[in-house]
Amino acid sequence: MNVADLPKVELHLHHEGAAPPAFVRQLAAEKKVDISKVFNDQGGYAFKDFVHFLSVYEAATSVLKTPEDYARLTRAVLEESAANGVVYTESFISPDFCGGGDVAAWRDYLAAIREAADKAEADLGITMRGVVTCVRHFGPEKAKASALCAAETAGDWIVGFGMGGDEGQGHQGDFSYAYDMAREADLRLTTHAGEFGGPQSVREAIEDLNVERIGHGVRSIEDAGLVKELVARQITLEVCPGSNVVLGVYPSIAAHPIKRLRDAGVNVTVSTDDPPFFGTTMRREYEMLHQAFGWDADDFTNLNTTAANAAFCDDGTRQRVLKKLERS
Ligand code: HPA
Ligand code: ZN
Asked: Which of 40, 83, 175, 311 is the most exposed place for a label (fewest CB within 10 A)?
């Protein structure tokens, strides 16, 4: 069988970062916003490095102005994910972009997103859950506002709290207040670390924020003691190989440490991060990993089971997802 046809679990997807360029162009035209600088000559997203990527991301996101826009975004993203065989997806959603950190406005955005997700579950068979994210380069005060939004809406659909943005700004520990708020609201925790930051950034994430998953975390491979600790603590890495290659963290999939981390016993999972920005899809990630490392259907089913077990959803949902991964 073609491994790309397998049912998939995705744990690391930035909601706006999954917006197809055609969708963003359409919204920009409707709203008469000029975001031509966001696109290259081929109509894809244009950026030269990670920090530039973040600013292009924010410019593209600026066309999403209402809850209705986010409902449409959700439909477009879930159609694409479902077409890639994704049966369960955890999407990072930022109150900073959805109502500017105001709880009442956030509730309206969230209601629109959930309604679109419920409809997609009914007619596309894909289950979505939300992980509220703060944005590191917006600073700890904005992160507290995001954490409050997360805490106020925590439950069976908003299941986690995380942090994206520029890893070069500040320290994980600067955000401990926001993370404490989220933890007290029973949200499960993840943060971006060990992508542009080295192993020390992963240690800080574990020690200062007490997260159970790490977004990327791949540079842990540079510290054998840390790799052992990830295994001992059963921390799951949300690995996005194609994203890492496009952003220059590694020169190729073959040079990527995902196989070495997996062979060392770390819980690794596979996601796309911001697929149209990085010219990837879940199908493509599987094809690239199959080509580079010879992983077969059993390997990928194993990765997806790891992902389902590390998902932040309730156990009833998890069992339904695990059932969909079973192969005869
Ligand atoms: N990494 C970090 N922060 C982000 C990303 C990403 O890929 N996308 C949106 N915010
Ligand atoms: Zn990410």
From this structure: 40
Spell out the SS3 assignment of 239-291.
ECHHHHHHCCCCCCCCCCCHHHHHHCCCEEEECCECCCCCCCCHHHHHHHHHH
The structural domains of the chain, with segments of one domain joined by +, span: 69-319
195, 204, 238, 285: the active-site residue: 195
Structure confidence at residue 1 (pLDDT): 84
In ligand 1, the atom with minimum distance to the C-alpha of 247 is 7
Mean pLDDT across 26-37: 94
The whole-number average pLDDT for the span 232-243 is 98
Quick check: CB of 192 below 6 Å from ligand 1? yes
Whether this model's pTM surpasses 0.85:
yes
**CA dist 39 to 69, 73, 129, 214, Å?**
20, 18, 29, 30
pLDDT at 9: 98
CATH class of 69-319: alpha beta
